[in-house]
Specification:
2 copies of one chain form a homodimer. With 412 residues, chain A is an alpha/beta fold. The first copy, chain A, contains 14 helices and 16 strands. The first copy, chain A, has 2 domains: 245 residues, Aldehyde Dehydrogenase, Chain A, domain 1, CATH 3.40.605.10; 143 residues, 3-Layer(aba) Sandwich (Aldehyde Dehydrogenase, Chain A, domain 2). Chain A has a 7-stranded parallel β-sheet with strand order 10-9-11-8-7-12-13, sandwiched between helices. A 4-stranded parallel β-sheet of chain A has the order 5-4-3-6, sandwiched between helices. In chain A, helix 10 crosses helix 11. Chain A is globular and about 70 Å long.
């Protein structure tokens, strides 16, 4: 087994090769990788079965389901690779060009980041998705998945590398850290000069560990305490449908709503309707005192407004105004996605102007914050920070830029 | 004296106000700040004289010169503010817009970063420049200058705030940390949720401290170990002029060259000419063994190829090929600016493709890496990292973006 340092050195050495691949070469590799995944289905499923055997009783059933692969899921991974092949290539795009009075021609050109390290948790399909997005954006990936998926991830990367080898491309374009200890994660976080971008994908604990310990450039992803504010001027039926959808269509994802703020002037009419609607879906309501005076539910503790439940739980609070709602959001949001439901254009405009989150919605569900829904194609995650990429991270968000300046002997 | 935490809270509270300022309002403020600087020249020069008195004997003469202000320098600072007023406003620019098949209208809009903290060293003009760039880009600045300039910086910020007050704008749009201890720098580096972007401007020690300790998003700036590679196919006269200019026109700045790499096939002819030319400018050459076999000079220690001299010193090495030169650059560069001098288009193309620095030059001096020279206007510094801004940081490089999504009740 290679050490993490050896893997990082391999990745660094592969950077120029990855950056120089033409669009056609990258697409050929992605299609070959897709074919290799399908061809190796049996080996991948056997490895996955071993992972599942080892994990049973160790992790929650919902996590077991995320870990589990079958023939259809492997085929879906392969289709994901083919979809990335069909996307445009961001590398080499000229973002700006100017000829200066002294004759210097300055081009601003999109370039790969270099080595992108991804630390993620149990879902093995992330392995194929991340490898594909990195390859298409000219990056070399260093994948460090979770302990419970290590056999599956090893088999998937072996298949992807089969695809690379079939096209005579170096295997080190795609790298897996087989050591799943905390130490290997720390090594990636501190590999100055070797890791150009670190993307942690996972829960609050992982993100916090990266923020606390990372000495390499890092993009925080995926923690979403998303708010829906139901304004005094909301269409009540629309508000009900949006809150219901944002909470219950897929509670385990980061763009699901965790908090509903309701304007006091409509709380008396809206909250009973909301309680009825969400009771049908078995959603537990955690209520601030003013909401609790109107509908039954669990009294909210203060931590309930700072928790990403990822479950059938919704915190509910009555607010005095759109400003009051925005103050609450500023204090409690993770900067992912927030929505206002209103027919009042002034309230909508204030909300869009002052809410400082990656995605701000007027009259739509927060569940749309997603690379595919935004038309960016497959994504690496949702950035909740403002430096570098923000919101859904597609191919362009995995790149940097560089100035290329051509002269004829100019000096200053 | 306010604590750093109190200042950060003030800054955070001022964010919505800064972000909502119109272009016209910002320009009015900048012009009022410029006038206030000029009006307060006497107070600023008195404070500066006190700084100089305290610093004499404590810091090197070159640093004293950087610290010193006079009437002309204050007027130049005011002109700098007026120049920023004349630049375009990046905030609100629509970077992309799409209407999805489901009718959602998604706009990608440029927004301020929020609170930008800048840690810098002795030059007091940075105080006015940084305040102006942050204000124009809709950000609230928290300025933390060096100990030896504290009286000057305090007087400058008092003048800038006079300008704000004259227009009834809150003083907390511009904030100065008066505590110049290491503790205040550490507080800025770790102020999660309060500082949206940290920009260290200064020497290697400061940058390293930020990289090691920062838990807020940070852009490294200004460390430049810049290389000039003189190719086999170089025009020797052009190469001499470029190396001379890049080394000696202003050795103390980050875009000055520190290393010259020379192709072995022309080293015998080129190096004696280079030695003669630079001897006239009193440049000390630090030579690798192959260069030392051709011209006289100091034998280079290995650290000489990893040192930002910022002085009349040039490290010189003979290389075998453009690939050899690029390997050396990949191993030793800080990612700032590198140049190739060549008439060979293939060598130039390889250099542009494979050198991973913010600015890559063909047949021009590295000294052009500068916001003004690139046509970006005044700049906050030169980023040497790939996440977020890269190269010269003008107004646009102090912004982020946000997705604004408008619907009519869409759910997923």
């Amino acid at each position: 087994m290679k050490t993490t340092q050896e893997i990082l050195q391999d990745a660094r050495a592969a950077k120029p090769r990855a950056a120089a691949l033409s669009t056609k070469e990258k697409n050929t590799l992605l299609l070959a990788m897709a074919d290799a995944l399908v061809k190796n289905t049996e080996a991948i499923l056997a490895a996955n079965a071993a992972d599942l055997d080892a994990a049973r009783g160790e992790i929650a059933p919902v996590m077991l389901d995320r870990l589990a692969l079958n023939e259809a899921r492997v085929a879906a991974m392969a289709d994901g690779l083919r979809a990335v092949a069909a996307l445009g290539d961001p590398v080499g795009e000229v973002l700006g060009e100017t000829v200066r009075p002294n004759g210097l021609r300055i081009q601003k050109v999109r370039v790969p980041m270099g080595v992108v390290a991804i630390i993620y948790e149990s879902r093995p399909n992330v392995t194929a998705d991340a490898a594909a997005l990195c390859l298409k954006s000219g990056n070399v990936c260093v994948l460090r998945g979770g302990r419970e998926a290590i056999r599956s991830n090893t088999a998937i990367v072996a298949a992807l590398r089969d695809g690379l080898s079939a096209c005579d491309a170096p295997e080190t374009l795609i790298n897996l850290v087989e050591d799943t200890s905390r130490a290997s994660a720390s090594e990636l976080m501190t590999a100055r000069g070797l890791v150009d971008l670190l993307i942690p994908r996972g829960g609050k604990g992982l993100i916090r560990a990266c923020v606390e310990n990372a000495k390499v450039p890092c993009i925080e992803t995926g923690t979403g305490i998303c708010h829906i504010y139901v304004d005094a001027a909301a269409d009540p039926a629309m508000a009900l449908a949006i809150v219901d959808n944002a909470k219950t269509s897929r509670p385990s994802v980061c763009n699901a709503a965790e908090v509903c703020l309701v304007h006091q002037s409509i709380a008396g009419a809206f909250l009973p309707a909301l309680a009825r609607r969400l009771d049908e879906k078995h959603v537990e309501l955690r209520l601030d005192p003013r909401a609790a005076a109107i509908i039954p539910g669990t009294p909210a503790g203060p931590e309930d407004f700072d928790t990403e439940f990822l479950d059938y739980i919704l915190a509910v609070k009555v607010v005095d105004s759109v400003e009051d709602a925005m103050r609450h959001i500023a204090a409690h949001s993770t900067g992912h996605s927030e929505a206002i439901v209103t027919e009042d254009e002034a309230a909508a405009a204030a909300f869009c102007r002052d809410v400082d989150s990656a995605a701000v919605y007027v009259n739509a569900s927060t569940r749309f914050t997603d690379g595919g829904e935004f038309g960016l194609g497959c994504e690496m995650g949702i950035s909740t920070q403002k430096l570098g990429a923000r919101g859904p991270m597609g191919l362009a968000e995995l790149t940097s830029y560089q100035y290329i300046i051509r002269g004829s002997g100019q000096v200053r």
